[in-house]
Amino acid sequence: MLDDQSARRRTDLYAYEHIWGQPCAGLHEDPGKRLVRVHASDRERVRKTFKRDAAHGPYHESFRIDRPDGEIR
To answer: What is the C-alpha separation between 24 and 53, in angstroms, rounded?
Structure first.
C-alpha cells in the first residue's frame, strides 16, 4: 500500500504525462526539457517568471503547451 506522499507523487506524475503528452523520465536531470513544450509565444515569459519566482516557493503562471501529438493545451 502507498503512503499519502507516494500516492500524491504517483498522481502528479500521471497528471504531468496526461497533460504534457510526454513521460516524466529525465525531468529531474533536465528540467529545461519541459520548457521546450511551452508554446513559443509564451516561452520567454514563462522562463522569466520561473527564474524570478520559483526560488521563493510555488508560483502560478498560465501558458499554452505544444504536445508531441500536435495538440495545443
So the answer is: 23
Q: Residue 1 above 70 pLDDT? A: no
Comparing CA positions, the residue from 29, 25, 1 lying closest to residue 13 is 25
| 57 half-sphere exposure, CB direction, 13 A CA radius | 0
| Structure confidence by residue, pLDDT tens digits, 2-25 | 577 766 777 778 888 888 888 888
Q: Three cell numbers at 37?
A: 513544450
Tell me the torsion sign for CA atoms 46, 47, 50, 53: negative
Torsion of CA 67, 63, 49, 59, to 10 degrees: -100
Residue 13's alpha-carbon distances to 25, 48, 56, in angstroms, are: 10, 25, 23
